[in-house]
Write a structure and sequence with these properties.
Blueprint: H1 8-15, E1 40-41, H2 42-48, E2 56-60, E3 77-78, E4 101-105, E5 178-179, H3 186-192, H4 239-248, H5 252-265, E6 269-271, E7 284-289, E8 293-299, E9 309-315, E10 320-328, E11 335-343, E12 356-365, E13 371-383, E14 409-412, H6 415-418, H7 446-456, E15 464-473, E16 478-480, E17 486-489, H8 492-508, E18 523-529, H9 546-556, H10 563-571, E19 574-577, E20 581-582, E21 604-608, H11 618-631, E22 635-639, H12 650-658, E23 661-666, E24 668-669, E25 677-680, H13 683-704
Parallel strand pairs: 6-7, 9-18, 9-19, 19-23, 20-24, 21-22
Antiparallel strand pairs: 1-4, 2-4, 3-5, 7-8, 8-18, 10-11, 10-15, 11-14, 12-13, 12-15, 16-17, 17-25, 21-23
Helix pairs in contact: 8-13, 11-13
Bound molecules: zinc ion.
Zinc ion binds next to helix 8.
Length: 707
């Protein structure tokens, strides 16, 4: 049975509204779309006796003269299945003209807010998803795997729209027929969607910070040192050192190396995983793995095996584009180009038209036969991924192929038309004999080899054994805003929490503070992992054994380590998994939950997720809140909307692997995963203060949870 409650007056209201689609000019052809099948007509569907379970049928009309760049008009209305009659044929195609072409979906819905499988929606891609208004059928760019078909680089191309997520309460009312796919203003909205709450105009700012309730403070049972009040440095004092760190350390190898040197300057001794460890109570140590992950720890004077550790863990890798093993490419139209591959979500739209340098690590065979790693950084702009001007029409609109359309240009070689070879313009693609036949250098662009060798002072190109190079934005990190409230920088995710965590450890274990190792019976530890952005699955990632192995070896340095001792240690420990989180963006307030919209320059953000993408729970939040209270720091909280999906970080995998209580909390930033992002100028310092407060106070706070 079809429950057709379609109201013709609504249809009229919808059809009189301005579709407002960008039109093709005279003589312009709609972009060809080879894989698209012609949708069936309503008449054909009727003849076939189509019985589609809880079907959604979108009647559409072809626009012979364009009208929409795809050549198809957007759907005017849609029928929705009714959950209570799931399994029944709900579609009354007699409502449509027999010639009306329809797109059908035969994926059963389980609820009126269910979303058809993404591949089913493929034929819909050409439609301007920004005009989808029905909350039961979210715009395509809110669906996994979809983005709006209009180029994000041309925001003025998008028609103004009412955000479909603004103020809409999906309800069973969406089982009715609804006008669909037309632009409406706020006044029209109420008329067309009488069942729904009208969108709110304006936005009540959330209380900042939304603070977890205070726990009643009782005197700690553990003999506590006096709580350390603020040290002399203010949060803003950390802004410039952090900017310098970001600018000077564009690759993960540079960042780890600089942190290692800084640790050594502050009395931390380097350990090698290859050697036996001779550790002492009161000692400070660090180790690296792969040159791209690092653990630093300080052992309390009163440490006994089985005691816990206050652990901060973050990831120090960032989105980047890595040179392919053989990045030489044929010169095209006079351009020398470089073969690169994205690491995680790099080569996204923010990578266009950026000044990109090249850096990384180079393995060099010294004359003694020893192979050493050298870090290199060519920090003048070498590479650039040029956009196609919008004047080229559809070709400039994307989506773009990251293999063929985002290939960086690194030089010019017009020798093919100039008729003579130019020694100075040396084609990257020509066979190279640098370093001799069979040498690694001979597989690489010749001018790049010379530049790297020159930078490292290497005269024998054959001594380059291999390298791992990547592109990075050369624009320095800088303070911004009218009052320099911001930091604008690349690679904030997540050199930010990593840097702040190390700074906090140095402060907490500095001999000039009252809470150095001399009064501690625990381990204070910071672990910075590589490969978080690609799933942490490698040996230097958080899923590797670096952290558990380090803890076992610390215990083993004092007494033979047993599984029991390791388990006891983790049970007495706590992990603050520190990764950047999303600051509220004033232009997209409806994408945030009002009570979970962290602000910049306010404080560390506890990240929660009901589906376990974050490790945060009530106990771990309470432990952190107690540390924050004692350190005089503020916490904020973030959780993503139910109709979005939370990202993840190292917290859940580390707590699962070790059994340690853990909270995910990070410093807020805007534009995560953009090549250039924003945080507050006080945020690095606020991170340092909170992390330091955790390292200093965990031991006493943990006592409150042991009773
Ligand atoms: Zn991150």
């Amino acid at each position: 049975m079809t429950k057709n409650v379609y109201d013709p007056s609504l249809r009229k209201a919808a059809s009189t509204m301005n579709l407002g689609q960008p039109s093709l000019g005279k003589g312009e052809q709609p972009a060809s779309r080879p894989h698209e099948e012609l949708p069936a007509t309503a008449g054909e569907l009727r003849k076939q006796g189509t019985k589609v379970d809880t079907a959604r049928i979108l009647p559409i009309r072809q626009q012979p003269n364009g009208g929409h760049q795809s050549g198809w008009e957007q759907p005017r209305e849609v029928s929705f299945g009714q959950p209570s009659t799931y399994g029944k044929d709900l579609v009354d195609t007699s409502a449509f003209e027999p010639s009306t072409r329809c797109i059908t979906f035969d994926h059963p819905t389980v609820h009126d807010t269910a979303i058809p499988a993404a591949n089913t929606l493929h034929p819909l891609r050409p439609f301007d998803s920004s005009t989808y208004l029905n909350p039961a059928f979210p715009p395509l760019n809110y669906l996994p795997g979809f983005s709006t078909t209009l180029p994000s680089r041309q925001p003025d191309y998008l028609p103004p729209r009412l955000d479909p997520l603004d103020g809409v309460q999906p309800s069973s009312a969406s089982t009715d027929f609804k006008p669909f796919g037309t632009r409406v203003d706020r006044g029209d909205y109420a008329r067309i969607f009488p069942h729904y709450a009208p969108p709110r105009i304006g936005w009540a700012p959330p209380q900042v910070p939304p603070k977890p309730p205070k726990i009643k403070m009782e005197p700690a049972k553990v003999q506590a040192e006096p709580v350390k009040i603020e040290s002399e440095r203010k949060p803003i004092d950390y802004a410039k050192p952090f900017c310098e760190f970001l600018t000077n350390n564009p690759t993960v190898f540079h960042a780890v190396d600089t942190i290692a040197k800084n640790l050594e300057k502050h009395g931390y001794s380097k350990l090698s995983e290859r050697d036996a460890w001779d550790l002492k109570k009161g000692g400070k140590y660090y180790l690296e793995r792969n040159g791209s992950s690092l653990i630093a720890f300080a052992i309390g004077d009163k440490y006994e095996p089985g005691n816990g550790a206050a652990m901060l863990a973050g990831h120090i890798d960032a989105l980047t584009a890595k040179l392919k093993p053989i990045p030489k490419l044929d010169t095209k139209a006079g351009y020398v180009q470089l073969g690169v591959a994205p690491y995680a979500g790099a080569l996204n739209s923010t990578w266009w038209d950026r000044d990109l340098g090249i850096g990384g690590r180079v393995l060099v065979k010294e004359s003694s036969g020893k192979i050493v790693t050298k870090l290199v950084k060519l920090d003048w702009p070498i590479a650039r991924i040029p956009t196609l001007a919008p004047h080229f029409g559809a070709a400039a609109n994307g989506p773009f192929n990251p293999e063929t359309q985002m290939v960086p240009i690194i030089g010019l070689d017009n020798s093919d038309i100039s008729g003579y070879g130019n020694a100075a313009i040396d084609a990257a693609s020509k066979p190279s004999l640098l370093g001799g036949a069979g040498a690694f250098a001979s597989t690489q662009p010749e001018r790049l080899v010379k530049a790297i060798a020159g930078e490292l002072g290497i005269s024998d190109h054959g001594s380059i054994v291999n390298w791992e190079l990547e592109l990075f934005d050369t624009q320095p990190a800088t303070l911004g805003g009218l009052g320099k409230e911001f930091i604008f920088a690349g690679r904030i995710d997540d050199k930010l929490c990593s840097w702040a965590a190390i700074q906090a450890l140095l402060n907490s274990t500095s001999t000039s503070t009252s809470t150095s190792t001399s009064s501690s019976s625990i381990i204070k530890l910071v672990a910075l992992f590589d490969d978080e952005e690609i799933g942490s699955g490698l040996r230097q990632g958080a899923r590797g054994n670096l952290l558990p192995s380090t803890i076992s070896r610390i215990i083993d340095a004092f007494t033979p380590c047993t599984p029991t001792l390791t388990s006891r240690t983790f049970a007495n420990s706590f992990l603050l998994s520190a990764d950047v989180t999303h600051a509220v963006n004033p232009n997209f307030l409806p994408a945030y939950l009002p009570q979970h919209s962290p602000r910049l320059n306010t404080g560390l953000v506890v990240a929660a997720d009901s589906n376990g993408h974050m490790t945060t729970d009530a106990v771990s939040t309470a432990v952190l809140q107690r540390c924050a209270d004692r350190a005089g720091q503020r916490l904020q909280v973030f959780q993503i909307r139910n109709d979005s999906r939370s990202g993840g970080t190292v917290g859940p995998m580390l707590s699962a692997a070790t059994g340690v209580r853990a909270v995910d909390a990070g410093i807020p930033q805007l534009s995560m995963h953009s090549i250039r992002a924003t945080t507050g100028s006080e945020d690095p310092g606020l991170g340092v203060k909170m992390f330091e407060g955790f390292l200093d106070n965990y031991e006493e706070v943990d006592g409150e949870f042991r009773k």
